[in-house]
Amino acid sequence: MADAAGLSPRLVVLDWGLLETLLALGVAPIAAAETGNYARTAATLPVPRSVTDIGLRLDPDLEWISALKPNAILINSAQSAQVPVLKPLAPVWRFTIYDGSGLPLRNAVSVTRNLGGRIGRSQQAGSLVAATQQSLTPLAGYDGRSILLFSFLDATHIALYDRSSLAGNVLSALGLANAWGQGGGGWGVVPLSLPALAQSPEARLICFGPVPQPARRMMAQSPLWRGLPAVRAGRLRFLPPVWNYGALPTAMRLAGLMRAALARPDGQDRVG
């Protein structure tokens, strides 16, 4: 959808996965939702200062969007309820990465190619797919332990990422086994109490930040935490915050972080 002069279209994007895909394709939208929160929470790629923040992802500023006169508004399928109010402003392009299939990585490849074709960036889309595939080359030399992926919700509850999550898909692509064999929600994430980490005593743990202060205090004081087999044996890795509902740029970042973390010896990681 590039114009005759080869310029990029005027796009408004309400989904962070689509935002990072556009940026990776070399296209800056004219506006995006919650750019400040994106920078703090996801930060996969920097958002140019030229991109206007048009409010919340689920409640954007419609008057502002109208004033910007976009060529298209990009949303994910979970935002479909907004179509009736967005459609009078510009054509709405709807993309689906998280559809309950458990294959967000595969879907992100399709979305990247689709979006690239629509905006005249098919070559860049192909390059992004190829770079992602290269980053997902199976990990060599790993000891074969299965892995539990989680983040803290508070001092006593965690969000555990199953095989159908983006992080779980990346783990599988790297040739690693997810120790959590049960299912989660449509987004591949299941909230659990802390003792769930003890259900796979031989696993290695990977914890995504941020770690809230109550959880930090718990880790320093709790016999339950210190008694977890993986914690006791030093089989614990801490990673920085990652937006686990992203697209291919997030998948590449996850792959790099996991490779680096698993290359470190057991017993060395400390919460940052």
The portion of residues assigned to helices is 25-40%
The CATH class name of the largest domain reads Alpha Beta
Tally of DSSP helical segments:
11
CATH topology of the largest domain: Rossmann fold
**CATH architectural name of the largest domain:** 3-Layer(aba) Sandwich
Q: What is the percentage of strand-forming residues?
A: 15-25%
Spell out the helices and strands N to C. EHEHEHEHEHHEEHEEHHHEH
Main beta-sheet annotation: 5 strands, parallel
Q: What structural class results from the helix and strand content? A: alpha/beta
CATH homology group of the largest domain: Nitrogenase molybdenum iron protein domain
What is the overall shape? globular
Number of domains: 2
Tell how many strands the DSSP assignment holds.
10
Task: Report the C-alpha radius of gyration, rounded.
Answer: 20 Å
Spans of 5+ residues with little confidence (pLDDT < 50)? Answer: 2-6
Read across the widest sheet, the strand sequence of neighbours is 3-2-1-4-5
Note the gap between the termini: 44 Å
Q: Overall mean pLDDT score?
A: 94
- Determine the oligomeric state from the structure: single chain
Organism: Acidisoma silvae
Family: Belongs to the bacterial solute-binding protein 8 family.
Domain Fe/B12 periplasmic-binding: 10-267
Pfam family, one: Peripla_BP_2
Architecture overview:
Keywords: Ion transport, Iron, Iron transport, Signal, Transport. The N terminus is likely disordered. The termini are far apart. A hairpin with a 4-residue loop joins strand 6 and strand 7. Helix 6 packs parallel to helix 11. Helices cover 36% and strands 15% of the residues. It folds into 2 domains: 87 residues, Nitrogenase molybdenum iron protein domain (Rossmann fold, 3-Layer(aba) Sandwich); 117 residues, Rossmann fold (3-Layer(aba) Sandwich), CATH 3.40.50.1980. It is α/β, with parallel strands linked by helices and 272 residues long.
